[in-house]
Amino acid sequence: MAIAVRSKVKKRRGVGRIGYAPSPLMVYGLPWASIMLASLTPMLPIITSAPLVPPLALMMLIAWRQLRPGLLPVWAGLPLGLWDDLFSGQPLGSGILLFSLTMIALEAVERQLPWRGFLQEWLFASLIVVVYLVLGAVFANPGDFGALTILGP
Description:
By secondary structure, this protein is mostly helical. The chain has 5 helices and no strands. It has helices at 24-38, 56-67, 77-88, 94-112, 118-140. It is globular and about 75 Å long. It starts with 23 loop residues before the first helix and ends in a 13-residue tail after the last helix.
């Protein structure tokens, strides 16, 4: 004889609900929060021989944009670039410009080549990161192209 026992533990709402839509706060907030958190990585106590930290916020922006193309609007480059400028050590405005140009370039590629392959997407993403590093070095040291030697092998 089987006895049905009711559990006294209440289930949290939204946990273990397969087949249901996720929370809109998580859907739209997680990309913004992860990019903003990646902008804080220059503040980590990492010791290197050169002041070069990869642009993790830009790489996270590109990854979210390629993973979910319609999730981040084109204007998202402005506030995310401003947030990145506050913590990256770059001159104020360089992140705003470069993040905005990145979003515009990704949107243009999305419209021109709607059927891209994995290789094309990540080659374009690596090209954006290289251009970002070069222009970031030029903006940080105007007139001194010796800073570009740090980017080479």
